[in-house]
Amino acid sequence: MAAQANTAGTKKGFLQWARSRRGQQLIIIIAFMIIPLALLFTFTYLPFGEMVGFSFYKMKYVGKRTFVGWKNYASVFSRKDCFGALKLSLYYMGGSVVQLVLALYLATVLSFKVKGGNIFKGFMFFPYLINGIAIGFIFKFFYTRGFVFDTVLQWCGFQLDNLPYWLKDQSINNISLVGTSVWRYFGQNMVLFIGAIMSVDSELYEAAMLDGANRLEQFRYIILPSIKTIVTLNVILSITGSLSAFEPPYVITSGANGTGTYFVVMNEIAHTQQKVGLASAMAVVLLLIIFAATILQKLFFKYVFKNAEDEDFGAAKKREKQLARYAARKAGR
Predict the structure, then answer these.
(1) DSSP letters for 24-36
(2) 96 and 188 assigned to the same domain
(3) Model pLDDT for residues 256-307, shown as the tens digit of each residue
(4) Closest by alpha carbon to 230, among 262, 274, 200?
(5) Mind listing the pLDDT tens digit for each residue in 196-222?
(6) CA 52 to CA 60: how far, in whole Å?
């Protein structure tokens, strides 16, 4: 009887606590934590763990599995069509540099009052909103022999017979595909840069102009130090994204004529050749490469900005002096 009364009292006390404001807050917090974590584990970490397990087997999607240990990982580094495809990432890394420079330049120009600037921003950002498959089909016809690009070049005076095959010539086809990626993604980088530049105090520009600073000096000493965090973020996203390029080569050329990137080759091995274990090992290797590249980039930028705090302190003092001179001149008018 005493045990039953104790149990009933505990249950009643728990119900009272659960109905209290503090109890309801804690229950809601736990529920909001458990549900996303459960979904994340079910649809991300559990499949990833299964994929790591698959990488140690010789297997197809259906049928017998044979444990092969590290042989799949050895094949990734020994087969030319696997690890060799990573060399094409250098093209996309070079394109990401062009993409960031172009985005930063246009963002700097459009951050100031420019006639028709908002319309131009919309046009530049619009390609990022288009589905990647649709962009692939657009540029597949754009680069086809005698179609849009060749027609425009003929209007400019070029002869069709002197123009290369943009998607067949192995000396230029990867550059053509990189141009597609640059066209699609630089608008996103531009918008991020514009948001960061717009947050800079406008009085700094006025004070710098009174001190005789031109636009280049304003960019170097005001804009660039103020947006270095966004610059670092965009560089990391662009470089890691170039390692996993897939849509342009897959849709436009299907990986033919030396355009098969690592993801295209992995898709071929997994879905056409049905070598699921080898494809899983390729995915794990790519994850490790992206992880290592991210760490190296962070260390690089940490080294580049190792005196960032001192520079920021000095820049802040300089800005204070500039603003003080600007305020004094404004008050003396």
Answers:
(1) HHHHHHHHHHHHH
(2) yes
(3) 888 889 989 998 998 888 899 999 999 999 889 888 888 888 787 777 666 5
(4) 200
(5) 888 887 777 777 777 777 778 788 788
(6) 15
Max mean pLDDT range (25-29, 36-40, 300-304, 311-315): 36-40
| Token pair recorded at residue 189 | 């980088």
Structure token digits, residue 162: 């002197």
For residues 218 and 208, is the Cβ–Cβ distance under 8 A? yes
Cα four-point dihedral sign 272, 276, 278, 281: positive
Domain count, the chain: 2
Among residues 54, 70, 94, the one where a domain terminates is: 54
Domain that holds residue 130: 78-331
Give residue 109's Cα distance to chain centre: 23
Residues contacting 228, CB < 8 A, separation 6+: 305, 308
Q: Residue count of the chain, please give it.
A: 333
Higher-pLDDT residue of 196 and 15 is 196
Residues 185 and 43 both lie in one domain: no
